[in-house]
Amino acid sequence: MTAAQIPAVAVEPFGDSAVMVTVPHPDPVIRRTAIVAFRERLLAHRPPGVLDVVSGLESLLVEFDALATAPEHIEYAIRLLAERMPAEQPTERSRTALRFAVPVVFDAETGPDLLSVAEEVGLAPAEVVDAIAESTFTISLLGAAMAPMMDGLQVPRPVRRRAEPRTDVAPGAIMIAGTNAIIQPFPGPTGWRVVGRTPHTIVDISRPDPVSFATGDIVRFVPVSRDEAAALDAGFLLPVEEVPV
Asked: In whole angstroms, what is the distance from residue 136 CA to residue 153 CA?
């Protein structure tokens, strides 16, 4: 999607110092593609007073300094950016997609929501693991703390989020919701369903490049036993190959 193709956006207050931006379109692919394109435009032309932009699969949370600007100014700037193509557009750089094979331990300890997910979608836990392993995921965006959010989960029906979010999920947790998956980079809360864990470190802020993946990269989850995971030299996650695109 080009900058000129971004549909109209909806802007709603989110507390006293943030707004939520969404694309009200019936097609989920257009909603997600458009919000990613708009995020790039917003970051390239950040309005005065904007402090942070937090990405969701179909939304952006735009946080601003309430002492430096007002919500109506932020909303006006957001709508203006959505309606008009900035005069100077960043040059798109071609990038070869990368493929990742991520080892994952799927059991009751690493995947405390695996059984409830299986009951919800009408499969046995082992069949859910098989479905995850047979799915090919594409990274749609990097969310909070550079967590890779992915499309591509092939299960009989979309998976609901937890009614009560977990307060502390371990790094490396593999989580699913809807037809999406995400890997937890650092300890923290989540409402996504936790189904397994990888021994790899996926974000390392001590490295010049804290992550090795980007949007458009392809991910497969490979089930391994606890013993197999312990025997792996599972340090920083690296790709297994480049993918022609």
From this structure: 7
Model confidence over 166-176: pLDDT tens digits?
A: 999 999 999 99
Q: How far is CA 175 from CA 113, 114, 184, 187, 239, in A?
A: 9, 10, 8, 13, 20
CA gap 49, 72 in Å, rounded: 12
From its phi and psi, is residue 216 left (phi > 0), alpha (psi between -120 and 50) or beta? Answer: left
Residues pairing with 190 in the sheet: 166
- Give CA torsion, residues 152, 202, 177, 166, to 10 deg: 170
- pLDDT (tens digit, 9 = 90+) per residue, 5-42? 566 899 999 999 999 999 998 887 788 888 888 888 88
Cα 186 to Cα 201: distance, rounded to the nearest angstrom: 9
Q: What is the sign, positive or negative, of the torsion defined by CA atoms of 171, 177, 181, 182?
A: negative
Question: How far is the C-alpha of 129 from the C-alpha of 106, rounded, in Å?
Answer: 7
Among positive and negative, which fits the CA dihedral 94, 209, 174, 167? negative
How far is residue 135's CA from residue 119's CA, in Å, rounded to a whole number? 19
CA distance 89 to 3: 8
62 neighbors 32 (Cβ within 8 angstroms): no
Angle, vertex CA 232, rays to CA 195 and CA 211, nearest 5: 70
